[in-house]
Amino acid sequence: MSQHFVSDKPFDPYSIENLTAAQERFYFASQWQLMWWKLKRHRLAMVSSMVLFFIYFGALFCGFLTPYNLHTRNIDFIYAPPQQIHIFHEGEFAGPFVYGLEYTLNMENLKREYRSNTNDIQKLRFFCSGDKYKFWGLINTDKHFVCPAEGGQFFLLGTDRLGRDMYSRIFYGARISLTIGLIGIIVSFALGIVVGGIAGYYGGIIDNVVQRMIEILRSFPELPLWMALSAVLPVTWSPLSVFFGITIILAMLDWTSLARAVRSKLLALREEDYCTAAQLMGAKPKRIIGKHLLPGFMSHLIASASLSIPGMILGETALSFLGLGLRPPITSWGVLLNEAQNINVVALYPWLMLPVIPVIIVILGFNFLGDGLRDAADPYK
């Protein structure tokens, strides 16, 4: 006969419901905490976020991080090739330095042919005084992280047709290209939430009118429509007015996908009990949408917005590259690439195509980050 062992301890019916500290931390976490924990496990998204952080940091402090001012011209070094940074000279440590440049004019093709003078060692200076600039457009200063040697040159990415340093101009161009994406998504985000929220909450004829309007806008090819609207901007406008005009054009054509996402979510959520309770308590539609419905899927909206920023950056770059967007003296990545349209120039001076590299990095960074945010915000994963 088998033996039965029975515990004589008092039975606690709630003992099986006691949570460990880790379980309690997980079950009582907010939606944003859960989203952050899931995002941290997406390594590619985290790496992309760090890359984007450093790029935006560089754009904010471009005056300090670059050796030259945006418009500084080195007329003796037109189309100079990139200079390589050296640490050792003839086997001996000499610190970070570059070799001086010398050139001769090729009379057959009228091209300047540069060569490094290994006897001219130009040590780089750090935390030094150089070209004057306005820090954030407010404070006059001349402090730079790195400067060329006194009377020397330092062209890390070469120079353009006017002898302007490409490295400095790419950093300064990041301010405009990245700002257009952020300002554009703010306008697009607001339009998408307002229009999509109204259509999803009220439904009926209002929803039908909004959907038909969205379908009409999405039926036009994006690039030709951008080009047509950009061509309408008066040529007499100031560069700042053109900047805001291009931003508004990109935002006005990008809100449709976000509005549809908001509309579909609200059509489902407006039938929930808590929404009905808010209506019975006399809450106005604006409060119901803003306080009860939108917070439920705000994480999805943020993920969608992060995926829309690359499209706006590409739109500005494409328009400026075609000569229909921003124009000098404003400098953006698209404006820099506009100077590299001539295939002969590109063949002779390939470093003029270098502004395309930060464009690719930023676009990939936002796409990877957006994928990570979308996965982290998905409640079914």
SSE topology:
Elements: H1 21-27, H2 31-40, H3 43-60, H4 62-65, E1 86-89, E2 92-106, E3 111-123, E4 125-135, E5 139-147, H5 166-202, H6 204-219, H7 222-232, H8 239-252, H9 255-269, H10 273-280, H11 285-293, H12 298-321, H13 333-338, H14 343-348, H15 356-377
Antiparallel strand pairs: 1-2, 2-3, 4-5
Helix pairs in contact: 2-15, 3-5, 3-15, 5-6, 5-8, 5-9, 5-12, 10-11, 12-15
Count the DSSP helices.
15
Order of helices and strands: HHHHEEEEEHHHHHHHHHHH
Mean pLDDT: 82
- Which segments are poorly predicted (pLDDT under 50) over 5 or more consecutive residues? none
Q: Taking Cα atoms only, what radius of gyration do you get, to the nearest Å?
A: 29 Å
* End-to-end CA span: 50 Å
Strand residue content: 5-15%
Q: Name the assembly state.
A: single chain
Estimate percent helicity. Answer: 40-55%
Would you tell me the structural class of the helices and strands? alpha+beta
Overall geometry comes to flat
Q: What topology, given as strand order, has the largest sheet?
A: 1-2-3
Report the biggest beta sheet as strand number plus sense, adding barrel if it closes.
3 strands, antiparallel
Q: How many strand units?
A: 5
